[in-house]
Amino acid sequence: MFHVNFGVPEDYARGHIPGAYHLDTNLLESSSDWNRRSPEELESAVLRLGITVDTPVVLYGNDTARDPREAHPGRRAGQIAATRAAAILTYAGVEDVRLLDGGLNAWRSQGYPIASDRREPSEAHDFGASLPAKPGVFIDYPEAVDLLAKPDGALVSIRSKPENVGETSGYRYIQDRGDIPGTIWGDNGSDAYHMENYRNIDNTMRDFNEIARNWAMAGITPDKTVSFYCGTGWRASETWFYAHLLGWDDVSVYDGGWLEWSRINGPSV
What we know:
The protein contains 9 helices and 9 strands.
């Protein structure tokens, strides 16, 4: 079990589920573009975490209330970080990756104990498969361009309305505003770090029938080739995970998202 966040070991130290280890998403993502790391880097990371292809992995995060003064709000989006880790570990080839629904919030609400000790996983020595064992979890820019031209393709923007219409880029480190032309807007919630429209008030996943119904109304259906994207891949990974749970076969994350697309094409307002 891993307590997941972006660069905040002190959040793990303040309180985690007893027996859980800390997983920093920096191990899995490149700091230059926030895309998944290379297969070689990922293999090193998963072995360091004690994970092999047949290790059952449970992930969760600690989501806290939004503070508009926060310099690095991504450090508070723990449950989205956990789904990002789920997508990358699945891509690597881990066979049994699960998410604790509701994250640490749900654990606390049930009155279960919280620990503050630091535990280190025992390093593994052989992953048991060539990475990536499931490359179809992600697509990159050329595949995203091709998908937009496919009659049965759906490139889906999991971004807030202000991002989608170009009022904001959503991130302090992304200057260009707008969204990718020709995509379907799949919504997410209030901003780049919250997923209210995919979760219940207690932070658990909304009923899958509701999610599927909302997607169908937007033209997002399992008979299409579907790829989700957002700014840098976190929110898209959460929706990919939900589609994965629904049993959708041809579904992926466009890893580069708006950050990569805007770097190549500029703003699209």
